[in-house]
Structures are given as structure tokens and as C-alpha cells.
Amino acid sequence: MNEVAAVPWWVHLLFWGILLLFDGMMLSYNPTKFGSQLVLRQFLLRAALTDALAAALFYTNWMVLIPRTLSRGRLVPYIIGVLVLLLLYIPARFGTSLLIGGAAEGARNQPQTLAMIVPYGMMGLMAIFFSSALRITGDYLRALSNRRELERQQLLTELAMLKTQINPHFLFNTLNNIYSLTSRKSDKAPEAVLRLAEIMRYLLYESGTETVPLSRELAHLHSFLDLQRLRLPASAPEAIRFEVAGGPAESDFPIAPLLLLPLVENAFKHGDLAARPVAVHIALALVPDTGLTFSVLNHVAPDDAGRGLPDQPGGVGLANLRRRLELLYPGRYALQVSTPPGQHLVTLTLRQS
């Protein structure tokens, strides 16, 4: 790659802008000194050569010295390189003064000329350190941007892995339900397969985006609940209750896909579906432009009342949910689990900002 092209355009603009500004200040500092065209031409020539020497220091440090020393963690070679550049720069500046002013005049003013060693050295150091400051700052900002992009890619990868864990987990439980229906030769089995097809369509084709409208997520939950109702006796249609409050604005509320399913699924996995009159009570309250609250209340069989949700295998869904919330809604969610007598209540609160 062309090394000059590696220098950003704004660095060229900034460096040459400062040089030209400095030359302009020198020219306007004492305009009567440049009364004759000869003196003015000498000044412009000296300024051009001086700027060329400063540019040689600046770009050599940027494109050669820093990449071969500081970028590799070699501080001592860098300092030696800076000293070598100064040893080349200072005689070149003297040569420029002699070339413009004439050898004879230079000889007469030799003591005064030698006194410029320190100022010339300082000017050279300024050019080198200005180059180093810009290069190091640019490298740091670029590394910071790359690190943020890497973190973003890692986040997307982790979310994708979590989602792939959700789908098989859900499919495993649903196939168990369908197997139970088919083993009893239930007439509900075909309808269960149809509901599963609708759910899998959502999982495969509509949940690949970062967010979906809340209405689509709720439609998916309704399909899931219809599938679960097939497990209940025909005399208990109201045993599963799903209430939504928030009005039509719910369709515009963005939410991460498959975020609510683990809470509902756990209620059926670990709840007592024989409880009456309501075995599972699901409620969603939406406050437009603010957030939502989603709660799932299920009854617990007396033998399981003293236990929380088991860690395996059902806890996989809840653990994945917590991790997804941490990644997608950092500082903007609350997940509360409580166990009233004979019941299990999980409440999820999401804030938009």
C-alpha cells in the first residue's frame, strides 16, 4: 500500500494549514522588511525550503519511524531515530540559510548563525512530536473503533447463539405435546401440527431481525397458547387467560423477537394446568413511548410448592432470557420472580429508553 496514502486527508490539511499560517504570520509581522521584491522572493524561497524540511520530518516520522519502532513497542529505537532526524534536519536548516543569504554574509554572521542550533532543534522536535501526537491519536481512535466493532460482532454472535438455543428448546417441548396427543389418537393432533407450523414459520422467517412489532410477538404467543389449550379438557377453555392493555399502539412498539416466550413456556412446563378456574394468567400492559410490563402467573402443584423452577432442563430458557435482556436492554429492564402461596409469578418490565 502507498505509505503517503496511509496519511489521512485531514492530517495533510491540518499540517500544511499550520505551516502556511505560520508563514503568513511571519510575513505580516513586519511588512516594511519586505519592501523590495528581492527580499520578498528570498523570504518566500526560505519559507518554502523550511516548510519542505519540516514536511520531511513530519512524514518520515509518520510513515517510517513510528511504524517500525513505537508501533512495535520499541521506545529506545524511536528516540534514537528522532535524534538522527534532528542531526539531519539542523545542518539542512543551516544550509538553507546559507543558500538564501549567501555564503559571504553567512560567514560574517557565523556566531549569530550558530546560536540558531537550539531554535532549529526545537522547531524540528515540534514537527516530529506534532506528527507523533497525530499518529498516536489516530491509531488510538482507530483501535477504539475496531474494538467497538469487534464487541458489536461478538454481541451479535452471542445473541444468535442464544436464539439457536431457544428454538430447539421450544421445539422439544412442543413435539412432546404433539406426541402425547398422537399417542392417545386425539382428534386435536392435526390442529396441533398446524399451530406448530405457524409458530415455526415465525421462528424461521420473521424472528431474524433485531426487533419486531409487538403485535407480531403477541400473535406468536397466541399461536403458542392455542397449541397449549389443546392439552386441556374441552370443559376448561378459560383455564388459560391472556389479557392485553395498551390499545392499538401496541403494533408500533418494537421488541426483540422471542423475548416473552420463555416466561410463558415455563408456566406450562412447570405449572399445574389442572388448577381452576385459571391455571395460567398472562397480562401485558403497554404504556406508549414508555415501556411495557409483562407478567405470567401460574399455579404450582402442592408437591412442587416448596421448590422453585428446576435448573434443568427448563431453567435453560429462563437463563437465556436473562442473558438476552442483559445484552439487548442493559439498564432498561427488570425481571422479578416471586412465589405467592401455591403460585409462581414472573414479571418483566421493559423501558424504551
Layout of SSEs?
Blueprint: H1 9-29, H2 37-68, H3 75-101, H4 103-108, H5 110-114, H6 117-183, H7 189-206, E1 212-213, H8 214-229, E2 240-245, E3 254-255, H9 261-270, E4 280-287, E5 291-299, H10 315-328, E6 333-338, E7 343-351
Parallel strand pairs: 2-4
Antiparallel strand pairs: 1-3, 4-5, 5-7, 6-7
GO molecular function: kinase activity
Domain Signal transduction histidine kinase internal region: 158-233
Organism: Hymenobacter fastidiosus
Class from secondary-structure proportions: alpha+beta
**CATH fold label of the largest domain:** Heat Shock Protein 90
- Distance linking N and C termini: 44 Å
Number of domains: 2
Q: Which architecture of the largest domain would the CATH scheme give at its second level?
A: 2-Layer Sandwich
Estimated helix fraction: 55-70%
Gyration radius, rounded: 37 Å
* Major beta-sheet overview: 5 strands, mixed
Which descriptors apply to this entry?
353 residues, alpha+beta, Heat Shock Protein 90, 2 domains, five-stranded mixed β-sheet, two-stranded antiparallel sheet, 7 strands, rod-shaped
Account of the protein in words:
By secondary structure, the chain is α+β, with helices and mostly antiparallel strands. It folds into two domains: 4-147, no CATH class; 187-351, Histidine kinase-like ATPase, C-terminal domain (Heat Shock Protein 90). It is built from ten helices and seven strands. The protein has helices at residues 9-29, 37-68, 75-101, 103-108, 110-114, 117-183, 189-206, 214-229, 261-270, 315-328, and strands at residues 212-213, 240-245, 254-255, 280-287, 291-299, 333-338, 343-351. The strands form two sheets. Strands 2-4-5-7-6 form a five-stranded mixed sheet, covered by helices on one side. A two-stranded antiparallel ribbon has the order 1-3. Strand 4 and strand 5 form a beta hairpin. Helix 2 crosses helix 6 and helix 6 runs antiparallel to helix 7.
